[in-house]
Specification:
Largest sheet: 8 strands, mixed
Number of strands: 18
Order of helices and strands: HHHHHEHHEEEEHHEEHEHEEEEEEHEEEE
Length: about 450
C-alpha cells in the first residue's frame, strides 16, 4: 500500500506540473498576441513578421515537447501503480520522441556531459529519425550471424548508438524493462532512494550538527551561536556486467523476441549481483552494502557507524529483543516509514514467537502476522511491515540477521545513465555471447535511519 501511495503522489505532482505548463502556455499566447498586434499596428516588414512567427512556432514546439515529457512520466508512474495493484495490460505507449530524447541523454552522459546540462535538452526531428533507424538496426544486430551481413543503411544507423568503449546502447524501452525487473527482484532497489546520474559519482551533502540557540529578552544582548558543520557523502557508480549465451539457431528463429529475451536474462543477472552488493558489498569495485560499514552499539547519528542492538543471547533470537528494537534503538521520526529486513529462514524462526508479557506461557499473541497472498495486505512484525532479502545473514553467533529502519532515508542507490551490449559470435562457438554492462553504486547516507539486531549477549 505504501508503494501505491508513493506512486499516487508522483502522479499528483506530474498533473500539477502539467497544469503549470498549460498556464505558462496560456500566458505566453497572451503575450505573443499582444506583441503581434503591436507589430501589425507598426506596419512591420514581411521579414520581421516572418522571423517573429518562426520564433513563436519554436516556443510552442519546445513547450509542447516538455508537456509531452511530463505526460510520459505520469504514464510511467501509472504503469507502476498498475503493476503494484496487480492490474494486467496496463501499459501506456511511449512516444518515439520521448524514447529518442532518453536515448540522446544516455549518449550525452557517456560522453561526459554534466548532469545540469542533461535536464533541459531537446531532440530534433533529425535525431528522432536517426533513432527510428537505430531501433530496428539494433534488433537486426542482435540476430545477425555476422556484423558484415548488415546492410549499409543498418551499419550506418548503428553508429548513432555506438559506445566509444565498445558495444551499442540498448534502446530506452529495453533499458526500462531491465530496470523494472531489477527493481522488482531486489529488495533494496525497491526500498532505498534511487538516483539516476550522468557522471561517474554523486556527492550528497549532509549537516553534521545544529547551530546553538536559546531564549533571550527583548533588550538583552545576543551572543554568537555555534555554526553547524556541513559535509558530504560520495557514492561512485561502479561497473557491473553480464555474459549471456545463446545458440545461433535460437537467434535465427523468427518467433523468438531476442531483445525481450536478452533484457530478461540481463535483468535477472544484474538483480542477483547487485542485490548481494547492496547488503554485504565492501565498496571495492562494487557498492558498499548496508552491512559493509563499522557497526556501533551506541545510538547512531547521521554520519556515524551503523547502529546495532543485541539479542541478549549468544546464539539465538529473543522475542523481547525484537519487541524492544523499534522503541529503544530507532529515533521516532523514522518510524512512519520503517520496516523490517531479513531472510526467509529468519522470519520462519520468528513466526512462532508470542508476546507472553503478563500472560501464561504460550498464550499470548504472535509477534508476526502473515499478509495476504495477493500482497494487498503485507505481513507485519510488531506492527511494522516485513521485506525479505535472501542476502541477509542467517541467525548465528555474532551476525546481524535483522534490520529495521526507514531504508529510503538510510541507503542511496545511484545508477549511471545507459546500458550497452556487445555481441560476440566468435569466442564461444557455437554460442553467441552478449556482453552487457551498466554502472551502479550504493552507500549509506543517513546512519541514524536504521538499526540492526546482533545475535549476542
Amino acid at each position: 500500500m505504501a508503494e501505491l501511495e508513493q506512486v499516487a503522489e508522483e502522479v499528483k505532482r506530474e498533473i500539477a506540473r502539467i497544469g503549470d505548463d498549460n498556464k505558462k502556455l496560456f500566458d505566453q499566447v497572451q503575450k505573443d498576441l499582444h506583441d503581434a498586434r503591436q507589430l501589425a499596428e507598426g506596419k512591420a516588414g514581411a521579414d520581421e513578421v516572418k522571423a517573429y512567427a518562426t520564433s513563436m512556432a519554436e516556443k510552442f514546439a519546445a513547450l509542447e515537447q516538455k508537456v509531452q515529457q511530463k505526460m510520459d512520466l505520469m504514464g510511467t508512474a501509472l504503469n507502476r501503480m498498475g503493476r503494484s495493484a496487480g492490474v494486467a495490460n496496463f501499459d501506456i505507449p511511449r512516444p518515439e520522441n520521448v524514447e529518442a530524447l532518453e536515448f540522446k541523454r544516455a549518449r550525452m552522459s557517456f560522453a561526459g556531459t554534466p548532469n545540469d546540462q542533461l535536464e533541459d535538452i531537446t531532440v530534433s526531428d533529425a535525431e528522432i529519425a536517426e533513432y527510428k533507424g537505430y531501433r530496428p538496426a539494433f534488433r537486426r544486430y542482435l540476430r545477425a550471424k555476422n556484423e558484415k551481413l548488415l546492410s549499409v543503411e543498418e551499419s550506418k544507423a548503428l553508429t548513432t548508438g555506438s559506445d566509444p568503449d565498445g558495444g551499442f546502447f540498448v534502446t530506452p524501452a529495453m533499458s526500462s524493462r531491465i530496470m523494472e525487473i531489477v527493481r522488482e527482484s531486489s529488495p533494496m532497489a525497491q526500498l532505498a532512494y534511487v538516483e539516476t546520474i550522468g557522471t561517474d559519482r554523486i556527492e550528497i551533502p549532509y549537516d553534521e550538527g545544529e547551530g546553538s540557540g536559546g531564549w533571550v529578552g527583548e533588550e538583552e544582548a545576543r551572543t554568537e551561536t555555534g555554526t553547524p558543520q556541513v559535509g558530504s557523502f560520495m557514492i561512485p557508480a561502479d561497473e557491473i556486467y553480464t555474459h549471456v549465451k545463446a545458440t545461433q539457431r535460437v537467434l535465427e528463429d523468427a518467433n523468438v523476441n531476442v531483445e525481450e529475451w536478452l533484457a530478461k536474462k540481463n535483468a535477472e543477472k544484474f538483480a542477483r549481483i547487485e542485490a548481494t552488493a547492496f547488503i554485504s558489498g565492501n565498496g571495492v569495485k562494487k557498492p558498499r552494502g548496508i552491512l559493509g560499514y563499522t557497526m556501533t552499539a551506541s545510538q547512531g547519528s547521521r554520519t556515524s557507524g551503523v547502529q546495532f542492538y543485541t539479542t541478549g543471547d549468544a546464539n539465538l533470537l529473543k522475542p523481547d529483543a525484537i519487541k524492544k528494537l523499534p522503541l529503544l534503538a530507532l529515533k521516532e521520526p523514522y518510524h512512519p516509514n520503517a520496516r523490517w529486513l531479513m531472510k526467509r529462514a529468519t522470519l520462519a524462526a520468528i513466526s512462532i514467537f508470542r508476546d507472553d508479557s503478563g500472560a501464561s506461557a504460550g498464550t499470548g499473541q504472535y509477534l508476526w502476522v502473515p499478509g495476504f497472498r495477493d500482497n494487498s495486505v503485507q505481513s507485519q512484525l510488531c506492527g511494522y511491515p516485513v521485506s525479505l532479502a535472501d542476502d541477509m545473514p542467517a541467525v548465528a553467533a555474532g551476525t546481524y540477521p535483522i534490520g529495521f529502519g526507514d531504508w529510503r532515508q538510510f541507503y542511496t542507490i545511484v545508477r549511471r545513465l545507459g546500458i550497452t551490449t556487445l555481441r560476440d559470435p566468435y569466442t564461444s562457438k557455437p554460442f553467441v555471447t552478449f556482453y552487457s554492462r551498466m554502472r551502479v553504486g550504493g552507500g549509506v547516507t543517513n546512519f541514524e535511519a536504521a538499526v540492526f539486531l546482533k545475535v549476542s549477549t
